[in-house]
Design brief:
- The structure is a homodimer of 402-residue chains.
- Chain A has two domains: 5-47 and 294-401, Aspartate Aminotransferase, domain 1 (Alpha-Beta Complex); 69-289, Type I PLP-dependent aspartate aminotransferase-like (Major domain) (Aspartate Aminotransferase, domain 2).
- By secondary structure, chain A is α/β, with parallel strands linked by helices.
- The first copy, chain A, starts with a helix and ends with a helix.
- Chain A has helices at residues 5-8, 11-14, 20-27, 48-67, 76-88, 103-115, 130-137, 155-167, 191-204, 227-230, 259-272, 278-289, 292-318, 344-353, 383-401, and strands spanning 34-35, 98-101, 121-126, 142-149, 152-153, 174-177, 207-211, 236-241, 253-256, 324-325, 333-337, 356-357, 359-360, 373-377.
- The radius of gyration of chain A is 21 Å and the shape is globular.
- In chain A, the strands form four sheets. The first copy, chain A, has a five-stranded mixed sheet, with helices on both faces. In chain A, strands 10-11-14-13 form a four-stranded antiparallel sheet.
């Protein structure tokens, strides 16, 4: 072995840790354990039979292009179909505003690569998506957390922070938000909050990253306009993905942004993986063109709605007093707040012993807070597991309270 | 639009350029143009019918895992099959020395992410693979070129350079080589040169990156042992890929290294794209398990051998005196050297006018040399195109000589 492996690593690599969630997920493979920890879609939502038809058609009619290298921007037909969806949502864009990524995590990686110098700040939610935080930190980015209220990121604190940063002459590179069914908090920003944040972005001339992996999975309540649709000044970058609404194993995502920003993503992606698999892109495009996408999405929403309601009922039935939780209008997660003196991290081994798992909330707090919180997933466990798992978790919490 | 997009980019992004090759490839789509510019496999080598069988089987028997998120390290069965291939080649490794990447370009990106701080040096060939250079530069790496002789990277200059760097107290992060059918030079390192380079790597305690995308495509001559097989000190990192020998559109590659280094790749990949598509990985594993891989590879080798020989013949027949070229024992490329006073870049528009394209050699020289060189691909053009394209290219060169 090379003798100085520790020293020759880049400064950014020295700070890299294995993802808490992905390492936790390894623990959760033991038999009998009910995991609320991952963010996996239910395999029941995978449209296997339809995919067989579609894959055969791609191989029959388009195999030369599907199996060859593709363009960095992505398969044109897929970009057109993604465009149609966003045009319906009121975004003022064309195909040149869309570029395909190797799922949303690559969108986050490229975003960081393009904008972050070591030591640069980015503004994120308290809490915020762990994969975003990891991507930003992997380029030496330093996230600054903005507190939440029941409407998501607080615009008053955001303004104070931006004002202070402006005075200090060190502006953040962007504001990172997940407006719909936020991961992990399960909160959806109402339109007035979106507008407040956009106004601040414009006032301080800062980009807003609208990470939008769950938007299509709404169980109830009213659609809130996308920040990109509310903006007409080119301050918003959208990150989208098929991972929660179609097939995570295809690894297909996209970014939507001003053309000059899309150009930066394309240049960065060329050095990163040349192109996203045209094979899976063509399958996805053909699948949507065949009209299968909408019906499967409706089935997915119905299933997750049922699971969420079941989980709400179980929480109400079994959780001891002093524990609170969000009731998300969509998405895959709810967020649990334990009494202030409790610590979800020290509770974790006891939960594993009781054969139930979750993600400790501190993983989502860039400032180390959130000790008494946990993220709970309801898309992956079966309905029986939801009831039994909440029972187990409630027992573990009740025992700890004593 | 945000007003200060130029200023807020990271230092590395400011230096990023669109890939010369990928931009050239756009020019080469005009009708009637014969392109020797890309590095595309021939679509005739894509095993479409066999893939249909295999994909159906994956969806029938393993769809839940194939369509779900997968582990960052990759699908175990695929890693086992890759392991078998390298065990046969004398590498002393186990499955923990192998991790899947989203094709080889991601291997290069992760390598740079893990080891390169802005300003760090890496040693590369003169010439060397453009995608490697872009990946290293995209993290602020500064490549230092080592001259070639007919056996590839010169070990005497490598030693001088390492000695000087040691004295200056600024060692390179790694030595980047493509020992088999080098891109773009078409040269294969004989074993003695591989051993010389390894000895230097050990003496100066520097990593060697053995980029190995073409090794399986040998038309003639003797296999040379891999550097990894000749080393027993953990100084070598291998980058492999299916892109040239199976299906580029699947975007599957791998790294082979000491476990401690594999661990760094896995951590880095978690922030970059979580995992490579398990769907395409499972298709690849099933395809190999079904015994289709070897026969298709033989077919591929036979086709490329025929094309290379046809190209050699055409070069001999049509090229004017003063032009020389390599005769590769395998791979996809040959390298052409024009008379010293000629410039392949100023020649390029004339070639496009004559409806033939190549890659200008300077793209592969980190020191700006190579003005009178060009890279020629023979895997993608048809046999007729090879003859006609060389004719056109020879005419353009002959006219320029006058």
């Amino acid at each position: 072995m090379i003798t100085n492996l520790k020293e020759i690593q880049s400064d950014n690599a020295k700070g890299m840790k294995r993802s808490v969630i992905r390492e936790l997920l390894k623990l959760t493979t033991q038999p009998g354990l009910i995991s609320f920890a991952g963010g996996l879609p239910s395999p029941a939502t995978f449209p296997t039979d339809k995919l067989k038809l579609v894959v055969d058609e791609v191989l029959d009619t388009d195999c030369k292009a599907a199996l060859q290298y593709g363009s960095t921007e992505g398969v044109i037909r897929l970009r057109e179909l993604i465009l149609e969806n966003y045009l319906e949502q009121g975004l003022d864009i064309n195909i040149h505003n869309i570029s395909i990524t190797t799922a949303s995590q690559q969108g986050l990686d490229l975003l960081a690569k393009i904008f972050i110098n070591p030591g640069d700040n980015v503004l994120v939610g308290l809490p915020s998506y762990l994969g975003g935080l990891s991507a930003f930190k992997s380029y030496g980015g330093v996230p600054i957390g903005i507190e939440f209220d029941e409407h998501g990121m607080r615009s008053d604190i955001l303004e104070e922070t931006l004002e202070k940063m402006k005075k200090d002459g060190k502006m953040p590179k962007f504001i990172y938000v997940i407006p719909d069914f936020q991961n992990p908090a399960g909160i959806t920003m109402p339109e007035f909050r979106r507008i407040e944040i956009l106004e601040l972005a414009k006032k301080y001339d800062v980009l807003v990253v609208e990470d939008s992996p769950y938007r299509e999975i709404r169980f109830e309540g009213e659609d809130q306009k996308m920040l990109y649709a509310l903006d007409n000044t080119g301050h918003v970058i959208v990150l989208g993905t098929f991972s929660k609404i179609f097939v995570p194993g295809f690894r297909i995502g996209w970014i939507i942004a001003d053309e000059a920003i899309v150009d930066l993503f394309v240049k960065a992606k060329q050095a990163v993986d040349l192109c996203t698999s045209p094979f899976v892109q063509k399958i996805a495009a053909k699948y949507i063109d065949a009209g299968y996408y909408g019906e499967n999405l409706l089935r997915t929403i119905a299933l997750y709605k049922e699971k969420k309601e079941m989980m709400m009922k179980a929480f109400e039935e079994f959780m001891p007093e002093g524990v609170t939780w969000t009731n998300p209008e969509g998405g895959l997660f709810l967020f649990v707040v334990l009494p202030e003196n409790m610590d979800a991290e020290t509770l974790f081994p006891k939960a594993i012993e009781a054969k139930v798992a979750y993600v400790i909330g501190t993983a989502f707090y860039c400032n180390g807070e959130g000790k008494n919180t946990m993220r709970i997933n309801f898309s992956y466990p079966s309905k029986d597991q939801i009831v039994e798992g909440v029972k187990r978790l409630a027992t573990v919490i009740r025992n700890e309270m004593k």
